[in-house]
Write a structure and sequence with these properties.
Two copies of one chain form a homodimer. Chain A is α/β, with parallel strands linked by helices. Helix content of chain A is 44%, strand content 15%. In chain A, strands 3-2-1-4-5-6-7-8 form an eight-stranded mixed β-sheet. Chain A is elongated. At the A-B interface, helix 4, helix 5, helix 6, helix 7 and helix 8 of A face helix 4, helix 5, helix 6, helix 7 and helix 8 of B.
Chain lengths: 254, 254
């Protein structure tokens, strides 16, 4: 049995608490939450709002906003215990070194409105000491089939890649949705295409999956599309991504 | 029973032939293919390579590259029959007006390597005459549960939107994949995130689903990310999409 205290009550804390609670190998002892706790907790889990009340646990999971991680780690009133954060963009050594440090980074987009099966979510773990890495790895395997050892340098790159395939991709969805709206087309018409685009790259590399006017170097269609875009920023996005695709496939010289 | 002749033997022709063949309401009479036919055909379907051999059918489906549509339509040696193309970016009136014209546009990304259930694929139909629209609509409903009446103006916008949510999104996947490669991270780590990002917008609008440093206006993370990108074009893409998101959410003035 791995005993855990969760520090934080945002989206990540919420989903981790749910997943930890579901696992028989883990016991959540306490949740630290400033202000009224957003996490509804039954059972034995105590919600506390004073660091001094933190009990002894195998792992302290800090699930707060990136900027708050170092400050929270410093405030912990103990030492030589295993303290991890859950952030993709924060290095391990942002944690105060009075404790044994680690990272427990579930790579997924979390929102409280959407139930999420953490089972398939990649959990990236890192620790300074081999025995701590083992504990973290056990914790991760208790909630996910998809555990990876990723160091701080790799995690930085992964977090950046996630911005491209999640945040930026979602913004392209939004541009698509806006175009539909403007022409009285239900956005639902695009959803099967969106789904298939995301599924395709499981069996085909994105490199091989690329299609479209930029890839074909179909200048006539590209110009028609640019003429159709009424927002200046959307034109710029269309132009830059077209150019980047053309450069990538060697159709255009810089 | 709707009788169909398919003209073309590319990806779209291939998948339509498969879907039509599966439907009891449709009979494919002939497939016209220049050169050796890529489509393996059993049964009664005849592969022909001379337009003069085209038999009488209810609908002639031209599934060739966008540029070739007008030329092929002109070459058909008959008139007053229902002739449709399958292209998102070609207007209805690109077809020769000696025949009754229509469009049968399945909005999906097709590759021969991937089996595809056309059942969920939106099929956008358009025709000049109400009775032809009815026939096309029956044809569409025989292979898909997702049929829409979309005129040429709307289809242009839809095709453009599809470039954003399919071609450009795939290119962002590729940038993500490249970043993984460079840091010895298996691309599989990103796939659950990619899948969830695509699924999220079925229940949440892309507007509401937006997260990330640009949305949060987290300048520190944005700068760290830019410093980490080694390719100039990827930096430009990061910057432009960040700016577009910030402008959209009113965090930045032009």
């Amino acid at each position: 049995m791995i005993n855990v205290c969760i520090i934080g009550s945002g989206n990540v804390a919420f989903h981790l608490h749910q997943a930890f609670t579901r696992s028989k190998a883990i016991e959540v002892l306490q949740i630290f939450s400033r202000g009224p706790a957003a996490i509804q907790s039954a059972d034995k889990v105590r919600i506390i709002d004073d660091y001094k009340d933190l009990t002894v646990a195998d792992i302290y999971v800090i699930a707060v906003s990136d900027d708050a991680v170092p400050g929270v780690a410093k405030l912990l009133p103990f030492q030589d215990r295993l303290v991890v954060h859950t952030s993709g963009s924060v290095p391990l050594d942002a944690l105060a070194d009075k404790n044994r440090r680690g990272v427990f980074y579930p790579l997924q987009t979390f929102s409280k409105e959407r139930a999420l099966d953490l089972n398939k979510v990649p959990v990236c773990v890192e620790a300074e000491r081999p025995e701590d890495l083992k504990t973290l790895s056990s914790l991760a395997k208790s909630i996910s089939d998809n555990v990876h050892f990723i160091d701080s340098g790799q995690r930085k790159a992964l977090h950046l890649a996630a911005v491209f395939v999640n945040n930026f991709v979602n913004h392209l969805y939004q541009i698509g949705s806006r175009l539909c709206e403007r022409h009285n087309i239900p956005f639902e018409v695009l959803q099967p295409l969106i789904k298939e685009t995301a599924q395709k790259i499981v069996s085909l590399s994105p490199e091989d999956a690329q299609t479209g006017p930029a890839r074909r170097n179909d200048q006539k269609t590209i110009e028609k599309h640019l003429a159709l875009l009424s927002e200046e920023k959307h034109k710029e996005v269309y132009q830059l991504l077209t150019e980047t695709i053309q450069l990538h496939y060697g159709r255009k010289e810089l």
